[in-house]
Amino acid sequence: MNKLSVCLTALCTLSLAGCIDSAAPIVTDAQPAFGPKLKLQLFTLRDGFARDPERVTYAWNGTHYVRTGGGMRDVRAFSAVPFEAGDFIIQTVPVNRARGTEYAVLHKVADAVFQVIAIDEADADEPTRAASCKHTDGAACRIETRDQLFAFARATAARKKDNGGLAIRLDDGADRSKHKPSH
After folding, report:
1. Residue 21 Cα to chain centre, angstroms
2. pTM beyond 0.85
């Protein structure tokens, strides 16, 4: 299995074989679900262990969270839209425009702690894969519609996986002025 970088938000590069992608972003109505700034401590989850720590910051630009510092150089931006059962769907904007837009499910584990799981075509049943996936040039499962995205996201969310990514939201410092002691 290739390394799966975390994305919370966003964020994984979703470099696993079998992940879905689209030629262009499918979700176009994203809002700043995590506020105007986002500071994350990210880990890769593999074999039940958190590895490969990386810290990254993002800022909302009106349509996406855009990387403003730290690691995750391979994911320059992402958006998050509410999904079912309190989960979110993450949509990446890769640095290399030749790569497709990739997707993950963001699942809240605890306050400010999220598991990021690449949406994988293998999680869906054969009829869903046959009806929705286009494999061009040996690429991942290429989808085209929001309904297809949600069908694959439901299938991935239904699986209990211990691999993927872990994202911990850190204090972004935006409220520091409110907590400064007065002299």
Report:
1. 12
2. no
